[in-house]
Design a protein that fits this description.
With 397 residues, the protein is α+β, with helices and mostly antiparallel strands. It contains 10 helices and 20 strands. The N terminus is likely disordered.
Length: 397
């Protein structure tokens, strides 16, 4: 028998409320809570959760409860349409697994309760994909009363938030979109914009591999206003069709941001402005010297980049110009910084920084080599002639 000392306290309504719906088998004697989880999340097969992304569950006993722990905490996988998220009746469940075993999807499948806190910590490694389907985890622990009776009872946790394990990065866009839509709408036909923006922020931070407690560069209020105006017409409520259309663009954009080297580092360091309209870029550029540029995501070519720059003519006149970076540019140059550094039209980059005095995001002009050389490949190539995309300005080398 396990004689681990556990946290004890009154299981009042305040304790239940503080768990924010994470209590399932709640009784007057015991509760198994999910204290910490990284989900909803898209994971890769063979990926191991780091310490900051571990899952923690805690068994809490009332002060009057006198039980022994007769098992480690066990995890089961629940697919879509499986066990409901609703709390169970106020009684300990009889010993009977309600969800399927992990079936080789992850390891470890069990973990001991730490003495004193009654916490079990899982640093999961995901061994197989979930076939593009969302799944959740459920935790159980077996207990037995010390006051007589050999019956063993099971305390269950609620389900975790859903997650998907993919086997190839091409599956990321569809899986991430499905999780965001499910998290934001929660089965509703339409939701307030503010509710969607909050869900989008959480998923964006996860998609860009940042620490949710201290993200280096989350979506700014300006980014959210841009999304709201450009893709949702500034409406106060949004519906599924609007989300689906928006995700065609943002999903491809985030896929590039997440997987194309070294785009994520450019974003995190403010070297990629990212989400801004063509008109706003032109307003910025007409206030700076020729050769100044910034990098944004294309609105018309999802997942591609547009370089807005102030260009000149032999007559001395200047204007704001835009160049769409094409797949052939990536074939000729190893990275986006390589491409930019090999073209004389681009001299000084507008970098997005936080003003230490005001705390506001501002643009600062920096030499492109000082900013981008750390992200360039060692091998340099000579670019070849090419035609610009419609509506964009060609470059000379």
């Amino acid at each position: 028998m396990n004689t681990t000392h556990l946290y004890r306290g009154e299981l009042t309504s305040a304790v239940i409320d503080s768990a924010q719906g994470r209590i399932s088998s709640i009784t007057s004697s015991a509760a198994l809570l999910i204290r910490r989880q990284p989900f909803p999340l898209v994971l890769r097969k063979s990926e191991q959760l780091c310490d900051s992304d571990c899952v923690e569950v805690q068994l809490i006993l009332s002060t009057s409860c006198d039980v022994e722990i007769v098992s480690q905490v066990q995890v089961s996988v629940v697919g879509e349409g499986g066990t409901a998220h609703a709390a169970k009746p106020a009684a300990l469940l009889l010993l009977a697994p309600a969800a399927a075993p992990s079936d080789g999807l992850l390891e470890p499948t069990t973990a001991p309760l730490e003495s004193g806190r009654g916490v079990a910590v899982f640093n999961f490694k995901f061994l197989d994909g979930t076939k593009n389907s969302a799944v959740s985890l459920k935790f159980t622990v077996q207990v037995q009363s010390k006051n007589g009776g050999a019956a063993v009872s099971v305390v269950e946790s609620p389900l975790t938030h859903p997650f998907v394990v993919i086997t190839h990065k091409d599956q990321w866009k569809g899986s991430a979109g499905a999780l965001l839509k499910r998290d934001a709408f929660g089965g509703l036909a339409e939701i307030p914009w503010a509710q969607f923006a909050n869900s989008l922020q959480r998923h964006f931070i996860r998609a860009t591999k940042q620490d949710p407690t201290a993200p280096k560069r989350a979506l700014s209020s300006r980014d959210l206003l841009y999304f709201h105006a450009t893709f949702f017409g500034g409406q106060q409520t949004i519906h599924h069709a609007q989300f689906d259309k928006f995700w065609v663009w943002l999903g491809s954009t985030l896929n590039t941001l997440r997987h194309q080297r070294p785009i994520l580092q450019l974003w995190l360091n403010g070297l990629l402005y990212g989400f801004v309209s063509k008109n706003e870029v032109e307003t910025y550029l007409m206030q700076v010297e020729p050769g100044t540029f910034l990098i944004r995501f294309s609105e018309t070519k999802p997942g591609s980049f547009t370089i807005g720059y102030r260009g000149g003519y032999p007559s001395g006149e200047t204007e704001a110009k835009h160049y769409l970076v094409t797949p052939s540019d990536h074939a000729l140059h190893k990275t986006l910084p390589d491409f930019i550094c090999q073209h004389a039209q681009f001299r000084d980059l507008l970098q997005l920084i936080t003003d230490p005095a005001s705390g506001q995001l501002v643009l600062m002009k920096v030499n492109k080599h000082a900013a981008l050389d750390p992200f360039c490949s060692k091998r340099q190539r000579t670019p070849e002639p090419f035609l610009p995309a419609k509506g964009y300005t060609p470059l000379c080398t």
